Amino acid sequence: MDPSVVDLSRLQFAVTALYHFQFVPLTLGLSFMLAAMETVYVITGKQIYKDMTQFWGKLFGINFAIGVATGLTMEFEFGTNWSMYSHFVGDVFGAPLAVEGLMAFFMESTFVGLMFFGWNRLSRGGHLAVTYLVALGSNLSALWILIANGFMQDPVGASFNPDTMRMEFNNIAALVFSEDAQAKFVHTTIAGFVTGAMFVMGISAYYMLRRRHREFAARSFRMAALFGIISSLAVVTLGDALGRLDFLVQPTKLAAMEGIWHTTTPPAAPWTVFAIPDDVAQKNYAEINLPYVLGPLVAHSFTAAIPGIIELEQKAKLDTVNGIKAVTALHDYSSTKDPAALAIFKQYEQDMGYGFLAQRYAPDQDLSKLTAANTPAVLDRAARDTIPNVLVEFWSFRLMVLFGFAFVVVFAFAAYVSLNNKIEKHPWLLRATMWAIPLPIIACEYGWIVAENGRQPWTVYGWLPTFLSASTHTVGYMIFSLIGFVLLYSVFIAAELYLLFKFARIGPAEHAVPELAGPATPGFTRGGFADKSWQ
Amino acid sequence: MELYAILKLIWAGLLGVLLMGLAIMMGMDMGVGTLLRFVGKTDGERRTALNIIGPHWDGNQVWFILGGGAIFAAFPTLYATSFSIFYVVMILLLFSMIMRPVAFEYRSKLDGGTWRMSWDWAFLISGALPMIIYGAAFGNVLQGVGFHFDWTGQYHQDESFLWYLLNPFAILCGVLSLALSIQQGGAMLMIRGEEPIYGRARSIAWVAGLVAAVLFVLGGIWIQFIRGFVFTGTVNPNMESTPLGGPGVAQQAGAWMHNFHTLPVLWVLPALGVVCMVLAAVSIRADKPIIGWWFGALAWVGTIGTAGVAMFPFLMPSTTNPAQSLTVWNASSSAYTLGWMVIFAAIFVPAILCYTSWCYRVMKGKVRVEDVAHDEHSY
User: Fold this and answer.
1) Comparing C-alpha atoms, which of A516, A511, A460, A528 is closest to residue A155?
2) Cα–Cα distance measured from residue B55 to residue A84, given in angstroms and rounded to the nearest whole number
């Protein structure tokens, strides 16, 4: 296959996924914050909490629409651009995606309509339930997506079937409760809560600085600060848990994240705070090291050695030798159905993925054309491929972590001054939170890059290389779709930001005059919950 | 028949149900989008038309997403192959589909005439184009598609994409699908709309129903001459799911009629389709939009059901390598996946139907131009 088609397919997937993920965290976080605000409204009956729910709900809606729209792309891109991947793992990977639709996305999307349109038609309690269902739906949606993603990182609950040439599902519990999936689910959704909290806090800070909507802003700010401090502490802790999982199941990702070229010698092994990794020379420049930190930080141990990239490459070379045997036998078996070939395949099955990796560098991508003369070069290149781009991985990880800790500090301080009602004495803090609104989104994007760049060169870690996964398109097809996505998505983001800024600047509705609603609107008083707080 | 074959059969049925759900629920919204510029002359009228489906379009659209997800889970090889083979059309479909959520949410948030008019065009494109593509996809699959697989299970395309866009039978199916969606959208605009939207929707919708009926009959005649597909070898429904090494398949004119010859009771489906299209048109004309809507929904059942049973068990036949045609038997998931997915579908599809109808009940009643103008939550 044309390598540039694979690269363009990767580029398109990365662009559309990162673009989609600008909107997802805010949906995840804001939906629960809306539910919390509305809960306070239902309990206390204070109009201001209804105003808060409706105002932040309007901004939620602007963000939600574009999140839904760009999510459509993701559901279809596996089929349109990753045919071999979809064929190879669809039996396992498709199931959580379908369940996501059935269980979560349907619920979220059906009730979001009522959330916006049902204010005057539902009782207070009924509307609150609807808001909770939207929040639950969007977070459950994240759960199933990350279960699917977890399979790409740590393929559990399935085995390869040489008769159908694909991974087949055999253990639903293993898939659903995959540690990687569960850890990533909590880490990701809570990162969404951080994003939502910063969004509400930043915009509230804007009103405080302008001395507008002061009570509204102060209450929103406090709620967001409390929400934020809990979430940001949780997101850092859970991130640490994910790092340990990478140590256990994705050693190449971990080594790249931490810039570890040589297997470490515990317990003194240093954690590298700063470095400029060089992927070609396989070493770090300008290292700043903290001794004794790496082991406990990553492996939660003073005795475990962490494998380095150079040693991992050596091991990959051995795996590739076996992998070539596995793939050759499999190819043989696919045409002859010869039990002897199957037996050889079974013997080396665990290394099949490495055989596919080597296929990329074999003459005409055909493993049967390997000779004693050209094999060593193929092994070298395949083994080198097993290491993700270290520079990208190392720095994406560090920036994400740096942001994470910065959020803890900002939220802690904001919560402290807000609880002491001294917030307006700290205009610099207000200004800082305002400018910090996009930072959690950027941190989330770095998180994705760490997770998915670190998974390379695999689409399914250890089993299926990325270069084999793509559809056999022509470059022309890819250029057509890429140009379309770039044009359409640019228009969308411009419209979205314009509307968000516009409605954030306008701010919540003032309640000098009672709402038009009231008893005249049929259905408003249903259940005896008519809102009289404005009287 | 063994369990695995039964599971495959159940999923073939569920696939049909999902495609019908998609056509009925999303088709209706698409119809409203297509009609928007014609039933609403003023901005207030257009907003009213949008708010008629405003609370529901998002939920309805999930039928489309679920359709994709279910094909992925239950027939992964079909998903992988068809979405890639129809790449250009699928991407156009995606582009038009992703305009819709944004158009709903953003259109009425700003006042400018150009702004709103641009989104109104987006509604027209994103309403009409997906329905045409949806129908045309059926049309193309009925004629077979040029592809084959290599030993790894990777597909290879044997034809250029323009052929798919430009063949007359596919266009006929596309227009049929568009007409049905306009009928359904029109009926919904009548159910929840008042004059002048009501009258304009009525005069378009009943004609659309008759057009659909004529196209459906024409398509039925045309299909006699289309080279359908039949097995020449012994079929083992219980086979391992792989398109490689299956029984032989031949292409013959009129082969899509075989199932109707062997099981004449299947004629019920095309009859249902055409009768319901006419009855829907009559009901809409007679100011009975709710009855018309339900007849329209049954018309979809008849239409998609007809295509499904005509092809069964073929899902996407190959013209260039018929033995590698994708069928219900060779493109499905493993028994384990199909079994679990049956369980999930059995729990959640009824739940979805329940809460969707609850939402419609909560929001029922006429949407008036003045209500829309005064409600800050409306689109």
Assistant:
1) A460
2) 38
Distance from CA of A432 to the nearest CA of B (A): 29
pLDDT at A168: 93
Contact A250, A455 (CB under 8 A): yes
Here the tokens at position B179 are 């007409």
Gap between the terminal Cα atoms of chain A: 71
Give me A83's structure tokens. Answer: 């045919």
Q: For B144-196, where are the alpha helices, taking DSSP H only? A: 162-166, 168-192
Q: Taking a C-beta distance cutoff of 8 angstroms, is the pair B179, B211 a contact?
A: yes
Residue B283 CA to residue B289 CA, distance in Å, equals: 6
- Mutation target among A87, A143, A502 for the B interface, most CBs of B within 10 A: A87
Q: Which ipTM did the prediction report?
A: 0.91
Which of B25, B58, B125 best probes binding to A when mutated, by most A CB atoms within 10 angstroms? B58
> CA A201 to CA B3: how far, in whole Å?
56
Q: What is the pTM of this model?
A: 0.91
Which tens digits make up the pLDDT trace of B166-214? 789 999 999 999 999 999 999 999 999 888 889 999 999 999 999 999 9
- Taking the C-alpha atoms of residue A321 and residue A51, their distance in angstroms, rounded to an integer, is 66
> Which of A440-461 are b and which e, b meaning 16 or more Cβ less than 10 Å from the residue's Cβ?
bbebbbbbbbbbbbbbbbbbbb
For B238, the 3-state DSSP assignment is coil
Task: Report which residue type is found at A155.
Answer: P
The helix/strand/coil state of A289 is strand
